[in-house]
Amino acid sequence: MANPIHLEGTTLEGGGQLLRLATCLSALTSTPINITTIRGKRFGGGGLKAQHLTSVQWLGNASNARMSGVGLKSKEITFTPQSRIASGLEWRNGGDVHIKQNTPGSVNLVLQAVLPYILFANIGSADAKVKKKIRVKITGGTNVSNSPSCDYVEQVLAPMLSLIGIPPIETQIHSRGWSQGGARLGSVTYSITPLTKPLPAFQLFERGDVKSIRATIIAPKEAEQRFRDEVDVMFERREEGMFRSTQPDVQITFEDSMHEKRFYLLLVATTTTGVKLGRDWLYDHVVRVGKIDSIISSIVKKVFNDLIEELDHEGCADEYMRDQLVVFQALAVGKSNVYGGKRKEVLLEPSLHAKTAHWVAKELIDVHFDDDGGCEGIAFGADQDYNTAESVVVDETASVLKKLKVDKD
Ligand SMILES: Nc1ncnc2c1ncn2[C@@H]1O[C@H](COP(=O)(O)OP(=O)(O)OP(=O)(O)O)[C@@H](O)[C@H]1O
């Protein structure tokens, strides 16, 4: 068995994303890893929180990994997968997976760790010829600060993944779980169709013009009218900056947050090329009685400003999407490009999260991201295993295989 690849957990962003991506790529490629000073740049000393532990254990189980040091608050783990996908997993061929957390750790950060694995792990196995949905139910927080909300996943992540060639992912929110207004558990089911063949390279070059914008407000019922009015006014005021060459098309939805301290706003712009850019804020400052109007104003102002900044750079992915696309670029067949946009004629730097994801991918699977947002992927799945499955796949796949083989040669 090869020596594990060592990853120092304080590198760049030095948070949980490094661990999630590393364990996911490790499980997929059966590469042993050792991570030290886990989440070493995080306040409170770092280590594994429940959300990270859940993801690592699930991936370890799925890839039959030998694990040491895997426990709450642990700062060092060694993760040694024994097979790409363990045999005998009930969900492997379509079915239900339930990933339970007892705290409102972000369900979507757990999803971030397991989604690429679920999508890619079965490519090349004889089972992969049948497209069957896997319903992944995750319990925890659906709306948690500093992580993608379920609304963002449904309205931005899933459509963007569809745009790059991933089969559509459906979202069913059973109940909301919050980090604000007192911790509360919720759950969501994502219906995921695993890839049956390698993911072709994708190109996100053309942002296009903004076609429509959707505002999702979740707040106490008594704040509905005030919130809607504030959003209306802001759309009127900022219309020109958002819809430059198209007729404004705006949709506003409201949901009762059922709690006086839970305020959330998400804005999602859809462009003429199908790109989605989103910005949101789950209000995380102190909520004082009598101050609701100013809270709503500050949420609306901030989220509109953030979205307009995203629109101004003309890139094809918002700041968060950019780091979440890294794993797909790294695993695709050929060179995928994600144009990140420009500010004052200068290419926009990837966020520290994105740079961290680039670094992890480089360390584990030796891919390189250039300054233009391009990366030659490793053609995950287009290998020996996949070729041996050729005889059982349908004609269309066989022709793709031949092409892949020519490209590779
Ligand atoms: N508002 C948001 N919308 C969409 N995605 C977000 C949002 N905020 C953060 N993210 C994404 O969530 C991930 C957060 O990674 P990070 O390492 O900070 O997470 P973490 O596990 O909570 O770690 P830590 O507790 O160590 O900060 C990144 O992929 C980031 O792009």
TrEMBL record:
Q: Where does ATP bind?
A: 112, 320-324
The active-site annotation reads 353
User: What InterPro entries does its record include?
Assistant: RNA3'_phos_cyclase_dom, RNA3'_phos_cyclase_dom_sf, RNA3'_term_phos_cyc, RNA3'P_cycl/enolpyr_Trfase_a/b, RPTC_insert
Single Gene Ontology MF annotation: RNA-3'-phosphate cyclase activity
Q: Where is the signal peptide?
A: none
* Record domain RNA 3'-terminal phosphate cyclase: where: 12-369
GO biological process, alphabetically ordered: RNA processing
In terms of superkingdom, the source organism counts as: Eukaryota
> Which Pfam families does the UniProt entry name for this protein?
RTC
Q: Which UniProt keywords apply?
A: ATP-binding, Nucleotide-binding
The terms describing its cellular component in GO are:
nucleus
PANTHER family cross-referenced by the UniProt entry: RNA 3' TERMINAL PHOSPHATE CYCLASE, RNA 3'-TERMINAL PHOSPHATE CYCLASE
Would you tell me the protein name for this molecule?
RNA 3'-terminal phosphate cyclase
- Species of the source: Paraphaeosphaeria sporulosa
